[in-house]
Amino acid sequence: MRLADRTAVAAACSGLLAVIVVTVVASVLFAVSVAQRVDDQLEDRARAAPVLAAIGPRIEVSELSFVVAGARVRTVSPDGDAETVELGLLPAGGLPPLTGPGWRTATADGESWRLYAVEVDHPRTGEPTLVEFVEPLGDVRRQLRVLRRRMITFGFAAALAVGALGFVVARRTARPLTDLAHEVAKIGDRPEEGWTVSVDRSTPEVAEIAGALDDGLQRLAVATRRRQEALEGARSFASAASHELRTPLQSAMTNLDVALTTGHDAHVAQARSDLDRMRTALDAVRRLSEVDLLGDDVFEDADLGEVVDRAIGALGAEGRAATIAIEGPDDVVLPLWVDGVGLAVENLLHNALRHGAGPDADPRVVVTVAPGSVTVDDDGPGVPPEDRARVLRPFERGAATSPGSGLGLAFVDRVAAVHGGAVRIETSPLGGARVVLGLRPPPEPSADSPSPGPIDL
C-alpha cells in the first residue's frame, strides 16, 4: 500500500477511534449528569416530606392522588401496625418494599426508577414515618440512546471526512517522495554525468534523503567512470602490449632457433635479454593497470620523506657507483598510496641512474621532497621539450635505443593523477632532466628541518 493510502487509512482509523472514545466518554458524562439532576430533583422534593407524612392518607383518597409526583408514605400506628400510602405516578408492577431511608434504583414495568426515602416524625403521633419519592428513569435512558445514535452517526461521518482529508493531505505530503522516486527511475537512461537528483524539496526529511541519495549517485558515477576508464585503459594496454611484445618475442624465438642450430651462446644471451624485456614490460603493464582500479581505502596518512627514503634504500646501486642526495623538510604528512608513490619514486630513480652522466663518470641524482611533490634531478642528457608529453604515454621511450618497457613514466603519471596531481618534466640545474611528481597538497608544515646529507650508493 502506498504511503498516501496508508496515511489516509491511519487518519480514518484514528478519527473513528477518537469519535468512539468521545462517544463513550460523553455518554458516561451525560448519564452521570442526568442522574445527578434526577437526584437533585428528588432531594428538592424531599423537603416536602413532613407535609406528605401528615396529609398523605388524605391525598390518597382525593383527586390529587393522580396529580402529585410519585411517592410512598409508610406510617406506623401507636399499636405498631404499619401502613403504606402510594401517591401519584407509580409502576403498576409495584416497587420493592419500603424498609428504610436512602437511595435505591429499582426496575418495574420494564424500566428503571430512582427511589429516595427519608425518615421524618409524624406531625400528630410523633412516630417515625418513611417518605419515599419516586422518579422514572425511562426518559433519561431514551435520551442517552438518542445521544449515542447521533454521536455514532456523527462519528462515522467524521471518520470518513477525516479519512478523505487525510488522503488529500497525505498525497500532498508524499508528493516530494513520489517525485523523487520518478526522478530516480529515470536515472538509468542517463549517462553518468546526469546521475543526480534535485535536493531542493519542500520537506526537510525528503531533502535529507535526496541529498544522501545524490551523494551516493555521485560516488557511484565517479566509480563507474573510473571502471570504464580502467576497461578502456585495459583494452588499450592489451593492444599496445601485444604490439610491443610481438617484436621481442619473435626476436627471442629466432635467436633460440639459431642457437639450437649453431650452438652459439651469443644468441642464447640475446634471447634471454629479449625475454627479460618482455618480463619487465608485462610487470609494468600489470602495475599500470592496477592504478586505475584503486579504491579510496588504499590511501593513508604517511610521511612523504620516509616513503622516499625507503624507495632509495630498495633501489640498489644499479651496478654503478652513484650519489643520491635527498633534500627537503621532515614531517611532510599527507594522504598517500604508499606503495604506488614508492614504486613511482623508484622508477624515477631508475631512469635518473640509467641515463646518468655517462660510462666514464658516476651519475649524480638529487631528490627534493616538498609539501605535495617529489622532484628528481639528474645530470644525464635530459628530455627534449618536444618529447616531454610523449614519454608520459604508455610504451613511449625517449629514444628508440633507450632500454626499458616505456611504461615507467606512464606509471608515475597515473600515480600523480590518482593523488590529484600531475607530472612535469623540465630541465635540471644539474644539466639533465628534472621530473616533478606532483601529489595532493598537504597541510602546511609547522617548521622546516635540516635535510640529511648525501647518500652514497
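Above is the first protein from milestone M3; the second protein from the same milestone is given next.
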Amino acid sequence: MDERLEEIEKIIDSFVKKRHWEKYHNPKSLAMSISIEAAEIMELFQWSDNKESGELVKDKEIHANLKGEIADVAIYLLYLAKISNINVLSAIKEKMAANEIRFSPENSLSKDKK
C-alpha cells in the first residue's frame, strides 16, 4: 500500500481509538456519514449553475469549506474501507480498469462531438 495513504489511515485509526468511537463506526453509520458529508459538498453549489460553480471554488471561504467537506468524506470513506478490509488503491485500480472497458473512448464521445 502507498505509504502516504497508510500514514493517513493510521492517523484516522488513532483518532477513532483514542475516543473509543469504534462502536459507532460500523459500515452502516460510516456509509450514512459519507452521504451526509457529500451532501454538504453539494450544498456549497446548490444554487449555482455550471459556470458559477467553477467560480465559487475560487472564493476563499467556499474553497476552505469545500476542502473540509472533501476531507470529511475521505476520512469516513477510508475508515469504511479499513473496517471492510478493502484496499482503496487496489479497488480504484480495478474499477478504472473495468471503466476502461465499459466506457471506451470510441463509445464515450459526447453527442455534440459525433
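Note on the second protein: The mean pLDDT is 93.
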